[in-house]
Structure formats: structure tokens, C-alpha cells
Amino acid sequence: MASSASSTPPPRPNIAFRQLRGQRSPGEFAAAVRRAAREIGERVSCDARYVGRVEAGEIRCPNYAYERVFLHMFPGRTLTDLGFAPRAAVRGRGARAAGDARGEATGRPHDDHDPRYPRASDSDNTFSTEESDVRRRAFMTSGTATVAVASLGAVGLPLGADEARAREPRRFRAADEHEVNAVEEAVREIRLLDDRHGADGLYQRAAAPLRTAYALLDAGTTRQGGQAATARLYSGAGELAISVGWLAHDSGRFDDARSHYAEALATARMAGDPALEAHAFCNTAFLARDAGRPREAVRAAQAAARAARRLESPRFLSLLALREAGGWAGLGDRTGCRQALIRAHALFDRGPAETDPEWMTFYGAAELAGLEAQCWSALGQWERAARHAQRAAGVAAEQTPEFTRNIALYTAELADDLARAGRPDEAAAAGLRVLALLDEVQSSRIAGMLATTARLLLPHRRAAEVTGFLEQHAARARG
Q1: Does some domain include residue 292?
Q2: What percentage of the chain's residues is helix, strand, coil (to nearest 5)?
């Protein structure tokens, strides 16, 4: 017998939106969307998956925040020009009534909104207008990560010890779709906050969402969504472990970072997730290099590459070649390092791919140059390292100005290389540029690099430029 309500038609691909993306990968386009949002004071967590859902027609009309961003990016166009359905057809009373009927027929509500992103207008969504405003105000008015981490509270997972204790009496049950979404959103929030503010103010607050994610995982498979949702929860928990591990890593807590990366690797093995396994090994290689275990860095990078070959992402393999190069440089093996760098450049030049992991949006020409600078620096090639660090800082400032932490990191690397190359005035000038960014960035890694540069410049303290840097650096250390 025929159903009283017609089945939902399959979504139509959004050809117009796909054409606007052009030659950019979904990840690169998502980064451009986030950049445009910041230009107008909006806050969206756009990523490659969201872009894919729009292009597939799964999102017939964006929420109001995305609408403002898209119209800012493409002035003179309407939502219809961008391939979206008119809002009245999607959000109107008639459309909602029809959607309710379809929901009754299919057993699920009809809603074109992606539940992982804040909805600016609907009060029944997990992310309220008030919460979105709190997050936006935190980013627009705060110069420190201490205030910015307040935005993590909007993702629906507990943040600190008080919140965790408040939930202790509760028995965790199998996760539902909302909680899986919240885990994924927590990963994005941490990455965005780290890009802007660095790790030091985030690590302790980010540990509680991680505990919650694994408590949900331990409670069993999800009720809603079946195996697909369970796989998402495993992947989300593993990626969250890597993100928290990176915060520990960047803030100098190497033992904590190693533990979190091992947790992510175990999760990947349990879930049979090669992408997560490759990511965990990738970060383990980076940590091993920084912790003075270069041979382990080489082995971990090679293990990551073996797992990543199934992903068909040249850019990911390029990054892993750089991780391996860093290990060879730490071993003093110039030939091994050079060969790995050649591989990294060749793979990078093959361009982005649809299969690039969404977390890799940070990896572009600036990061390639920055990591190569670190290799030459480890080999004692200061002038060569300085050239690459200069390029990294310049490209980052031009192409990804929102990645404040990375700009500060590349510039700190430049200051160190210039100081070691015997160019104290230029090193001091670069150091002053880093100091100017430290109101926004809290990173023990960068602070340590700058302290080393200050020590290297002490013999040149009579030079005016060097004196200015040393005085400002000392004043900040005292403050």
C-alpha cells in the first residue's frame, strides 16, 4: 500500500556552488570561507565535509551566518545564484509542515541544516543564538586564549574539572547523534583556537571533552545511525585525542602528548581506520623529533606513510616525507634528509586532492617552507634555513593571516636562524615582530625559541635594534 506521504526526493547536486570553488580543494575553499567570515565578524566552522555536503545538494539553504559569509564572498549574487533554494521554500511554514509530514513517513525530521554547525536563527537547535554570540564575542574581543576557550563550551561537551565532577553521578549510555556531532565539533573548535591562540591556554580545558568522548565510546555503540555513527565516534574520539595531544606537545608536555597519541593510535587500530592511524603516527613522528628521538621520528613517519598510501592523498604523503626529513636531520644524515625533502616537494607539487584529510588545511606552501627551514637548521645550515623561514613567514602572512600561531612560529624560527647566521640586527627585528604577536598567541614552543634567540643576541646587546628586542623580551618575561 502506498504511503500517505511521498518519499523525500534525492538531493540535486549544487553545480553552481561547485563551479565557484574552481580549482581549489574542498579544504582550501573551506579555509577561504572561514577567512571571509572573520572579515565580517562572523564565526563559522566550515570544513571540507561541509563544502562537500553543499555541493552534493544535501544543504538546500545555508543558515543565516553562512548566508552572510557567502554573499560577502560573492558580492552581487543571491542565494539562488549560488545554487541554493530560496529560504522561504526551505524554512517557511508550508515547507516546514511538508517536512514534518516527510519526517513522519521516514521516521526522522526533515531539516536541511547541518547539525554540526551553529544555527543562527532556530532556538530549538543545540547551538542557541546566545551561545553563538558568546563564541563570536570571545573571538572578537579577546586577545588571549584564556578567554577564547570559552567557545569550547558551546559544543555540548564538558570543559573543566567542575563540569566533569558535576557529571560523575551520571551513567554514560550509548551515544546519540547529537553527541557524535559534539565530539566532531570539539575537534574543530580546538584546531581553530590553536591556529589563532596557541596551545598553552587550551590544554587543560580541552582534556575534559576528550574524557567525555572516550566515556561515550566505552558505553558502547550508538543507538542512532548504526555502524556509520559508531565509526564516526571512533574517528572523532581518536582525532580529539590527537588534537589534545598536540596541545600538550606544543606547550612542552611531551609525556602527556605521547600518551594521547598512543591512545589515538590504539583507537585507530581497534576501529580499522587507516586515516586515523596515519595521523597518529604523523604526530608521533613530529613529537619524537622534538623530544630528541630522531630515529623514532623516522620510523613513525615511515609507518604513517604505509598507512596513508591507501588514502590517495599526495599532500598527506608530502607532509609525512617532511616528518621523515626532520628525523634524518636530527640524526645528522644530510643525504637521507635531502632525499626526503625532494620527495616532499614532488608530492606537494601534485596539488590538493578530494581525499586530503580535513585536518590538513594548515599544510600549504608556508608550512612546507617552515618545516624545511627546521631541517636545515638542525643540520646547521643557518643561511639556508633563514631563507626558507623568511619565505614561510611571508607566505603565511599573505595567504593565511588567520593562522597567527604559525606566523609567529615561522618568524621565531627566522629570528633564531638569523642570530646563528651572524645577522643580529635582522634577528632582533624578527624577534620584535614575534613579540608583537604574543598578545594573541600562547605557545611554550615559540616562547622557548624566542628565549634562545635572546641568549644568542646577548653578545650584541650594544646594537640599538638588539637592545630594543632584549629590553622588550625581558619586560615580557617579568610580566
Answers
A1: no
A2: 70, 0, 30
Q: Which of 359, 344, 274 is nearest to 312 (CA)?
A: 274
Residue 345 covered by a domain: no
* pLDDT, position 132: 36
Find the angle CA(287)-CA(239)-CA(229) to the nearest 5 degrees: 160
72-81, 87-96, 278-287, 428-437: range with lowest mean pLDDT: 87-96
Q: What whole-number distance in Å separates Cα of residue 437 and Cα of residue 223? A: 46
With vertex at residue 170, the alpha carbon angle to CA 168 and CA 175, rounded to the nearest 5 degrees, is 115
Q: How large is the angle between the packed helices 203-218 and 177-197, nearest 10 degrees?
A: 160
At 270, which amino acid appears?
A: M
152 with 261, same domain? yes
Mean model confidence pLDDT for the chain: 77
Full-model pTM: 0.63
Would you say residue 128 lies in a domain?
no
Higher pLDDT, 220 or 246: 246
> What is the secondary structure of 218-278 as a DSSP string?
HT-S-SSSHHHHHHHHHHHHHHHHHHHHHHHHHTT-HHHHHHHHHHHHHHHHHHT-HHHHH
Give residue 236's Cα distance to chain centre: 13
Instruction: Write the pLDDT tens digit of every residue in 257-268.
Output: 999 899 999 999
Average pLDDT over residues 270-290: 94
Rg (CA), the chain: 24
Q: What angle do CA 233, 235, 237 make, to 5 degrees?
A: 65
* Residues near 318 by beta carbon (within 8 Å), at least 6 away in sequence: 343, 344, 345, 346, 347, 348, 363, 368
138/202 same-domain check: yes
Per mean pLDDT, which range of 205-209, 269-273, 351-355 is the poorest?
Answer: 205-209
Statement: residue 349 has pLDDT above 70:
yes
**Number of domains present in the structure of the chain:** 3
Interacting residues of 350 by C-beta distance below 8 A, sequence separation 6+: 314, 315
Q: Are residues 153 and 261 in the same domain?
A: yes
Note down the domain range covering 176.
134-272
Residue 141 and residue 104 in one domain:
no
Question: Rounded to the nearest 5 degrees, what angle is found at the Cα of 455, between the Cα atoms of 451 and 457?
Answer: 115
Choose the final residue of a domain: 272, 296, 322: 272
DSSP 8-state class, residue 354: T
Same domain, 103 and 138: no
Nearest to 372 by CA among 400, 355, 395: 395
Which of 223, 246, 272 is where one domain is finished?
272
Kindly compute the dihedral angle of the four CA atoms of residues 368, 371, 372, 376, in this order, to the nearest 10 degrees. 170
- Say if 297 falls within a structural domain: no
DSSP 8-state assignment for residue 80: T
